[in-house]
Design brief:
With 363 residues, the chain is mainly alpha-helical. It has helices at residues 18-22, 25-43, 53-59, 64-67, 74-77, 85-106, 108-132, 145-159, 166-186, 194-217, 220-245, 249-268, 279-301, 310-334, 341-362; strands at residues 2-4, 62-63, 139-141. It folds into 2 domains: 2-245, Rhomboid-like fold (Up-down Bundle); 249-362. The protein is 72% helix and 2% strand. The chain has a 3-stranded mixed sheet. α8 crosses α10 (194-217) and α13 (279-301) runs antiparallel to α14 (310-334).
Length: 363
């Protein structure tokens, strides 16, 4: 399973005064929430320096196979989860520096809307990119940096307008530019979700120009409508993508494999290894085991092969072979043919080989 880890600590410096601290309540609140969630996860056994990926998924990380099953809230909760304390520390530092500049400039409502909307959109871009790459079924994502890149995108858009005094623009543009370029290059290394970074940045730039129109006009009523509109468009975009993503065959295969594992457990429960095949055992095989493997084969056949990644095609082929192998074995137990030790040995040997190959593919 691939994990996403976000943001390096190259941030523009900002002045801090009593007035800015008082106008940074949302920023500080977001940092506190992220830290408290991380502490709770650590206490629950998720890890401190390097988090257990499955536990982070259990806490609400972005994971496409679960999202398409209806756990859409993961594209929001993943913004508040982190893969280790260093990941958390870098993101919270970046968030604080963004908040120093932006929250006083935008106001609390627009700031939280920008943070949330760009966080959601960065998650959608990440899901889309991993789907294109055929990695959607094996990639878990978490971290605040998509939203943080969004805030810097908003800031960049405002710096390209006349809203900020001209004498400050060049210095701030240089600092923001260094932050964005460095972190995007840093994101080229493995384990970093650059798709989320770029998605957050681009959506932030768009939202920044929208908010510029609001700030420039000074019309409170117009401001409210544009903020509501920004949130509504973001939610609509997320809904449209998530509704379409249910057709992702790599995700469908991952969910099919989960279903097959349960069917396998059910089928194998009818047989006691090493025990003789009795009349009761044959009844269980006929009523439970063979139908379970038949259902598993039908589920695998329903996954469209032409839309799978190379690894997905291999997984499907191996698991289909395994299911047919086991079904044939069950039919053998029902037959009146004399005991064939060589057949049983070869069947178990091939089944073990397939399982080992699947384990390697899943690493």
């Amino acid at each position: 399973m691939e994990t996403t880890e976000k943001i390096a600590p190259v941030i523009p410096e900002a002045p801090e005064t009593e007035s800015t601290r008082n106008s940074m309540l949302i920023t500080i609140g977001l940092i506190v929430i992220n830290v408290l969630i991380f502490i709770a996860m650590a206490i629950a056994g998720a890890g401190i320096f390097e988090s257990d990926v499955q536990k982070v998924i259990d806490w609400g990380a972005s994971f496409a196979p679960l999202i398409v099953q209806g756990e859409w809230w993961r594209i929001f909760t993943c913004i508040f989860l982190h893969f280790g304390i260093f990941h958390l520390a870098m993101n919270m530092y970046a968030l604080f520096m963004a908040g120093v500049y932006l929250e006083p400039m935008l106001g609390r409502v627009r700031f939280i809307v920008a943070y949330t909307c760009t966080g959601l959109l960065s998650g959608i871009v990440s899901l889309w990119w991993h789907r294109v790459q055929g990695e959607s079924a094996t990639t878990a994502g978490a971290g605040a940096s998509g939203a943080i890149f969004g805030l810097y995108g908003v800031f960049l858009a405002l710096l390209l307008t006349n809203l900020i005094p001209k004498q400050l623009r060049q210095t701030l543009l240089q600092s923001i530019g260094i932050f964005i370029v460095y972190n995007l290059f840093y994101g080229l290394k493995g384990g970093v979700d650059n798709a989320a970074h770029i998605g957050g940045l681009l959506s932030g730039i768009i939202i920044g120009f929208v908010f510029y129109l609001v700030l420039k006009s000074g019309d409170a009523r117009r401001s409210n409508w544009m903020v509501v509109g920004t949130a509504a468009v973001t939610l609509l975009a997320c809904w449209l993508y998530l509704a379409g993503s249910k057709q992702d065959q790599n995700i469908k295969l991952a969910n099919t494999i989960e279903a097959f594992i349960k069917l396998e457990e059910k089928a194998q429960a009818a047989i006691q290894p090493g025990e003789p095949i009795t009349a009761a055992t044959r009844d269980s095989i006929k009523m439970i085991s063979i139908p379970a493997y038949t259902e598993g084969i039908e589920l695998l056949n329903a996954v469209r092969n032409e839309e799978l990644s190379a690894a997905g095609k291999t997984r499907k082929a191996l698991l289909t072979e395994y299911a047919r192998l086991r079904k044939d074995q069950m039919n053998y137990y029902l037959s009146d043919a004399p005991a064939d030790t060589a057949y049983i040995t070869n069947t178990e040997k091939r089944a073990t080989e397939i399982i080992e190959k699947l384990k390697v593919l899943n690493q």
